[in-house]
UniProtKB/TrEMBL annotation:
InterPro entries: HARBI1-like (IPR045249), HARBI1_dom (IPR027806). Keywords: Hydrolase, Metal-binding, Nuclease, Nucleus. Belongs to the HARBI1 family. Its main location: nucleus. Its cofactor is a divalent metal cation. This is DDE Tnp4 domain-containing protein. Residues 2-138 form the DDE Tnp4 domain. The keyword Nuclease applies.
Amino acid sequence: MAVADANYYFISVDIGAYGSSSDSTVFKNSAFGKKLEGSQLILPSPTYLPKEENGENMPYVFVGDEAFALSEHIMRPYPRRNLSVTQRVFNYRLTLARRFVECTFGILTNKWRILHRALDVKLTTCDQIIKACCILHNYVRKHDGIRFKDKLYGTELQSLRPTPVRSRISSIENRQYFAEYFDSPKGSIPWQYEKI
């Protein structure tokens, strides 16, 4: 489980879960997931969205895919059936945000090529290698900056299984607010309708 920011830095990694665990379970059981769910993380206070000074204060959120539960601080896409234009725009914009995480993994594996193949070591050694690569990734990013070609590398990330979960009403309302904002003149981007 990893959390990355818009500058391709790993903010939190939890190494040690293996292929048989679902991503939502891995996240829930991680130290980060437990602190987020228990309101123990120090997050910025809710604030207005850009160009919307008279709107509602919205919480800062982490973006995930269908495998994650919708919550106050986790946004996931709408289910892919019978979507309105507003919902399709939201899903597209969420996908754009999730690309930062995918690119962070791509940069990591491209820089530390040991991750291009299966590691033939004990599981504890494997965990240590991956943690070391994540730490070195952040160190190199800080000292070398961003190279455009690093972002062009694609990864072989596995597709995640959707996890059926019930969401709190406020989480659903938050997602709808973000969706309507992205579909409004204040929050839209010029090319989004061509991409949905």
